[in-house]
Structures are given as C-alpha cells and as structure tokens.
Amino acid sequence: MPKMLMKGNHAAVYGAALAGCEAYYGYPITPASEIAEAASAIFPKLGRTFLQAESEVAAINMVYGAAGAGKRVMTGSSGPGISLKQEGISYCAGSELPCVIVDIMRGGPGLGNIGPEQGDYYQVVKGGGHGNYRNIVLAPNSAQEMCDLTMLAFELADKYRNPVFVLTDGVIGQMMEAVELPEPVEKLPDKSSWAVMGNAETKNLINSIYLGHDDLEAWNRYLGEKYATIEKNEVRFEEYMMEDAEIVAIGYGSTSRVLQSAVDIVRGKGVKMGMLRLITLFPFPKERINVLPDRNVRGILTVEMSNGQLVDDVNLALRGKMISDLYNRMGGNVPSALEIVEKVSELYGV
Amino acid sequence: MAQKTVLRKPKGFMDVYKHKPGTEKDRTHYCPGCGHGILHKLIAEALEDFAVIDKTILISPVGCSVFAYYYFDTGNFQAAHGRAPAVGTAVSRANPDSIVISYQGDGDLAAIGGNNILQAANRGENMVVFFVNNAIYGMTGGQMAPTTLEGQKTTTTPYGRNPLSDGYPMQMCELLNQLTAPVYITRTSLHDMANIRKTRQAVRKAIRYASEKKGFSFVEVLSMCPSGWKMDAVRAQQWIKEKMIPRFPLMVLRDNAENTGPIERPVPVLDPEEVKKVLGYDTFETTGFKKRPGTMFRKVALRVAGFGGQGIMSTGIALANVGMKYGYNVSWLPSYGPEMRGGTANCSVKIQEDSIGAAECTEPNMVIAMNQPSLEKFEKLLVPDGILIYNSTLIDVEPSRKDIRVCPVPITGIADELGDTRVQSMVSVGAFAAVTGMFDPEEIKSLMPTLFAGKSEKVRKLNEEAVQKGYDHVKRNF
Q1: Residues whose CB is less than 8 angstroms from the CB of residue A276 and which lie 6 or more positions away in sequence, other chains included
Q2: Is residue B83 a contact partner of residue B42, using CB atoms and an 8 Å limit?
Q3: Which of residues 317-376 of B touch A (CB under 8 A)?
C-alpha cells in the first residue's frame, strides 16, 4: 500500500474519498480549514461535490439534504462552528440521516483561541443539540486513524443511520505522519428504501415531525434502542501496557499520545503504569473502565484538555467503585509527558 | 350539448394524505380562505401536466406549509427553519436530474433564512423557490414578518409596525434581482381569478425551467391569511389589492432563461481503480532505503525554529519525509495560526524506531535555530548532550549552554552562494544528515521528485546542491 506523509486533516479527506463520500459541505475555521481545502482540491477531481457553504448552519443543512438524498456526505469544523451546527445535527439524528462530521477542537468558550483543546466533549458526546439523541463519536489519535476512522465513520453512519463524529483536536489535525492509504470502498449501500433520490421508487419522506405525543415518545424509545445496540456492538478502545498495570491513565486523542510517552517514562522507573485509550467516546467503554478496580489497580488518572468533562464519564463508569483523579490542561496547552509523570508521582507516591 | 366538467384533484397530490395524522386524510390543514391551497393546486397541476411528479423533490419549510409534504405525491423533505434553500442545494447537487422545489413563507425565507435564500440564488442552484408572502407569521399565531406592512398590527407589533424600530417591509424579489445568477424572478398574487391565472403561468414557467435545468427561479406569491389578519376571506382578498400590491408591485423582474444553457453537474467517480488513479496511488513510491548502520540516534526529537519565511516548516516536512523513506516512524507538528504570521515559527519533528507518543518535542535532543530569537527560545529546552545546529550567517552570539554540542552552519550564506535563499531548507537537511549520520545525501537527492513535486528541474537541481553543501560543510568542519 502506498504510504504518504500527510496532515491529519488531509488524511480525513482521503478517508472520505476512499469511503465513497460524494459531497463535502463546509465553512472555513481554524484549525479545521485544511479539511475544506483538501476536499476542494480532491473532490472535484473525482466528480464529487465540494461546496463552501455560506455558513456553518447552511453547511449542516446541506449535509442533511445530501444525506437524505442517499449520498455519503461530510462536513468539518471546530468548536464554535459545531455549536452553530447543533440544530442541524439534531435534525439529522431525528430523521436518522447518516452523515460524518469532523470536529477539530480548539480552545473555548466563546471565541477562545485556536490552540488545541478537548472542550467540545460534552457538546459532541452528549448530543449537543435539542432533543433525545446520541452521536457516534470516534476519537482518532494519529494521521493514520484520521483516515481509517473517517472511513469507519461512514460505515457506522450507514449501518445505524446516524450522525457520526470524528472528534479530535488541533494537534492531530495539524500534525503530519505517514499514512498507509487503504483500498477504496468497493460498493456503497443501497438506501432506496428510505432516501429521496428523485424517482418513482424513492418518493420517501425525510422528516423528524411526530405531532402525537405518544408517536414521538415511541420514536424516542425506538432511537433509544438503537443507541443501546450501538453501545453493545461498537465500543472501541486500545490498551497500552495494561496487563499488569497498577496505575491506569485514561485519555483520548492527542492526550493519549502524550500518555503513551508518560507511561514509557514511568515504566522506565519500574512502576507498573498503563494506559486505556478511548477510541469511541459514544459508545463509552464503560464496562472496561468499570472492571479496572477489580484487579490490582490502585490509581486511575484521567487526563484531558478540558475542564473535567471526560472524568465525569469515567467516574460514572466506575459507579463508585473508585474515584478517578484528574489532570487537565486548557486554553491551548497540551500537557507534557513530564507534567503527567510528576502528577503520577505526586498522587501515587512513585 | 353542454359538456360536463369534472373537477378532480391533480395527480401531483396524493390520493390519500397518508402522512397526515388523524382521520381527515382527504383535506388540508389550512384555514378557510388561505392562499396555500390555491398555490398547492397550481403546483400539483403543473407537475402532472409536465409529467415530472416522480422526479420532483419538495422541501417543506417551517411555517404553515411545514406540512406541505402531506399533500404532494413527490419525494419529500421537511427542513429546519429557513434552511430549505441550503437543503435544496444539496438535494439538487445529489440528484441533478430532479426538480427541486423549495416552498417557503415570509418568516422562513426572508427572516431566519435570509442568507440561505440569497446565497442559493447567487449560486444559481437549479431549483424553484415558491415564496408565499402573506405579511405575517401564520403558524405561530400572527407575529410580525419581514414583509409586514408599515403600521400593520400583529401580535408582536400591537401598535402597528414602526419602521423606526422594526424596519421596512422587505422586497425580496427586488433584493434578489441584484444578483447575477437567477434566471426567473417574478411576483404574482392570489387575490382574484385573473391573478390566480397569472400565478398559474408563473408556476408552470418556473417548473419548466427547472425541468430544463435552467437554474434558479423565484416566484413570490402574495397570499391571503384571513386568520392571521383577523378578517374574513373576502376582506383579505381586498386587503391584498389595496394594501399589499402598492408595497409589493406585481411584475416580472427577470426572465432570461431562454438565453441560459442547462446546468450540467459532474458524474461522481466511484470505481475503486479510478479513485486510486485520481488520488495518485501509482505515483507514491512504495520502496524505501535501508537504515544506515551506526547512526548516533535511536530517537530524534528535533525542533526547527526561525522567522516565518525561512523555510522552517518545509525543513521539518522534508526531514520527516526522508525519515519515512528509511522506514522510521515519523511525525511533524507545526506551531500554527497567528503564531505563524510574522515573528518566529517552529515545528517539532520526531524520527525514531519505536512508535511515537507525543508529537511535540518538549525536550528536544536536537535544535536547528535559524535566527537569534529561536536560539534563545529553544537552546534552553535541549536535553544535556543535545545537539544545536544554528545558522551562523544570522546568529553571531555564542550559545550559552556548555552541556550541549554546538554546530554552527552558515545556512543562509550557503543558500545565498547558490543564488537562492529559499534553498536554505535543504542546506539544513544536508547538515542534519551529516550530523546524525542517519541519511545518505545521495538518497536524499533521489527524493527530489517527491519533495519538490511539480517544481522545475532547475529548482530540484539547486536543492540537490543545497543538500550536498550543507552535508559537506558539517563533514569538513566537525
């Protein structure tokens, strides 16, 4: 397979192209603009649609239109842009439209700054828009995974007819790594039973209105069952040096890369530390986290670039068996491996 | 013999309104005297007459016509408030042969969706927009619309619309007529039979244009809202004639579809072999170089820093590329954003056997400093015994640390001697190769077609020389 040095942001677009994504609708925002730029360079060469929308709101509604028309479709943005898209994402979820949204998180709240952060965790993982829905959320931590998980995102989106987020931060979006490009998808799923494709066979309805209270409740129950199925089938995580770990660090995205370095340093001192790296944030690997205290684990440290958003879910997963400690940085600061090592030594006396 | 006229429902409507909840599946949800029903019928008739029902996709808005999808036997979308033109844009791009109809009211189109309609019109999307202007928000119970007349009382302008605080009625046809792309812009009314007939002509023309892929048509229709206006149906018709038409004159503002060719959209390439070809799979080199024995470094954690414009980023990318060809794990991380504009720029490069954790080099074992501020900033980050390569052309101060290895190279000077300052990146790459012993200069030079893809042979040659000069300088002096 050909190997190419590329930015995470570009790798996501290659992944989309390989997954048969036929349309990209987006609006520029740092640090996600390279996604739109790469799509504008690649998509027209493949006869696919690239359109720079007039706004984030327009972009997600174009995604709604293209998804409803049965196409694989993607948009990309960063925190403030994702906030603007939330109504449209709720419509996509409520109408069961498969789509892929890439969020390259930056510092917030408000205009914040363009440094890397993970402060969109709540708004992406918990739903974000109005109503009872969940997004599937994948958290790549390398350029390779920006490609691979974007491809997976399209598969999961179609499998569950649901919006799927590729959630990462400015570091992963901006960094370049070697990416082995996989084979393009051979065959796209047939969506004619529900999509609107402009012919007699597909005079379907794309809609999220249920006027009757019982009807809407039933619809929400149905969606809830779908999310439960997703939680059952799609949990993904990676373990690093976990076999005998007594101290476990938990993180995702660029934080997990730093944690890997930190674990190496701590292991070098003969201390048994490991890392649980979350690849899916919804579904959250809660069963795996829940059993951590059943073994020799004496300390759990959640490391995030946000204000304790991830550690909330870790503690919910632990269901009181143990309480996770938190180390976090914000504002565009990425924790260094040494900082984390210091924290580990302070907390667990190693 | 007088012929018997049979009135029947046009085939553009569903026989039974199956999506409508409740038992009344044979009638609309609209109030008596409302204009929507008339316009719906004109559209449904036209779809039947042009035999385009099956390839029509209707987008229902938010407002009274939110349930337009109950009635039309077409493909149907219901869109978020104001976004029908954005949704329609993507639907039209996805199905270029279909007839896309965006059916919107005045609040939806002119207020919350104001930008979306302007931009879809400006792109000349192949769609028809039916804009029902009844000067009020009907669905939500009679609030002020962008098209509410001066002095008109609504539930949010109880003392009448006051232009000083509420602005003036928006004339959307006139506004859109400022744009280049639309092919057909017209305003009609539903207040009497003569005008319904004119509306019928406008509806048919717009749908014909869409079927001929002529582009963007905009049909504004003045329409009665007896409930919102709190009048009976007859008085409502008169109100259009007396009050609305003077403010919203009925006319064709533009009709130049005859001079416009059909819009052709590209056909998506999905064949895997074709996709791989377009993405350049055959041009990527899959072969690499053998790692060189006896190199000093198992792990390079390098910081390259200097002024913006000194090729800082490209130095880092080139080194990562070369490292990749040698089979190392590599990463490159820039400082990005405003930091890059003026002042100092820097990037982190890791080249190592093991998998790479953090990409940022917080404790580099190597620094290439291209200017004085970078030297000051990054020298102190170096680990003990780390290597500092600095650009002695621009830096005349000795580094202060004594526990590091120092390697001054006149990087800018060498580049200038070669006649192009821009090749200093490759001078740095050459110097790096010599210092670390990781890369062979000849092998680096063989990568020029990849590193300088699309550049002239002359540029490649010059950069090859730069690699060699940087390499030789270090070999000679250290």
Answers
A1: A237, A238, A239, A240, A242, A248, A249, A250, A285, A288, A289, A292
A2: no
A3: 317, 320-321, 324, 329-334, 336-338, 355-360, 362-363
Confidence of residue A350 (pLDDT cuts 50, 70, 90): confident
Helix (H, G, I), strand (E, B) or coil at B24: coil
Q: What is the pLDDT of residue B344?
A: 74
The DSSP bridge partners found for residue A23 are: A49, A73
B223 and B105 together in one domain: yes
Same domain for B319 and B174: no
User: Tokens standing for A205?
Assistant: 């309805």
CA B294 to chain centre: 50
Residues B74 and B177 in one domain: yes
Peptide bond into A285 cis (omega under 30): no
Which residues does chain A have within 8 Å of residue B355's beta carbon, measured at their own beta carbons?
260
| Structural domains for chain A | 3-233 (3.40.50.970), 238-348 (3.40.50.920)
How distant is the Cα of A140 from the closest Cα of chain B, in angstroms? Answer: 13
How far is residue B118's CA from residue A304's CA, in Å, rounded to a whole number? 42
Instruction: Using the predicted structure, report yes or no on whether residue B221 has a pLDDT greater than 80.
Output: yes
Complex ipTM value: 0.96
Which residue, among A9, A54, A168, would best test binding to B if mutated, counting the most B CBs under 10 Å from its CB?
Answer: A54
List A303's β-bridge partners, or say none: A327
B362 Cβ neighbours under 8 A, 6+ residues apart: A336, A337, A338, B381
Distances (CA, A) of A338 to A59, A264, A326, B129: 41, 11, 16, 60
Q: How many domains does chain B have?
A: 2
Nearest to A55 among B94, B115, B276 (CB): B115
Nearest CA in chain B to A106: B337
Residue appearing with tokens 């999808």: B69
C-alpha B300/C-alpha B44 separation (Å) is 70
- Alpha carbon distance A26, A77 (integer Å): 7
In a domain, B1, yes or no: no
Question: Does residue B447 sit within a domain?
Answer: yes
- Run of H or E including A68: helix A56-68
Closest CA–CA distance from residue A345 to any residue of chain B (Å): 19
Nearest to B313 by CA among B413, B425, B410: B425
Full residue range of the structural domain in which residue B407 is found: 281-477
CA–CA separation, A324 and A328 (whole Å): 13
Cα separation of B471 and B215, whole Å? 61
d(CA B208, CA B50): 8
Give chain B positions within 8 Å (CB) of A47: 266-269
Whether B341 and B226 share a structural domain: no
Cα B403 to its chain centre, rounded Å, is 52
pLDDT confidence band for B341 (50 / 70 / 90):
low
Residue at B15 is within a domain:
no
- For chain B, helix, strand, coil in percent to 5 are 40, 20, 45
Taking the C-alpha atoms of residue B108 and residue B371, their distance in angstroms, rounded to an integer, is: 57
Interchain contact, A176 vs B320, CB within 8 Å = yes
Phi, psi of A85 (to 5 degrees): -80, -10
Does B247 share its domain with B350? no
Residue B361 shares a structural domain with residue B433:
yes
Model confidence pLDDT, tens digit, residues A130-185: 999 999 999 999 999 999 999 999 999 999 999 999 999 989 999 999 999 999 99
* Confidence band, pLDDT 50/70/90 cuts, at residue A2: confident
Q: Round to whole Å and give the CA distance between B110 and B167.
A: 13
For an interface test with B, which of A3, A5, A14, A273 has the most B Cβ atoms less than 10 Å from its Cβ?
A5
Residue B340 belongs to some domain of the structure: yes
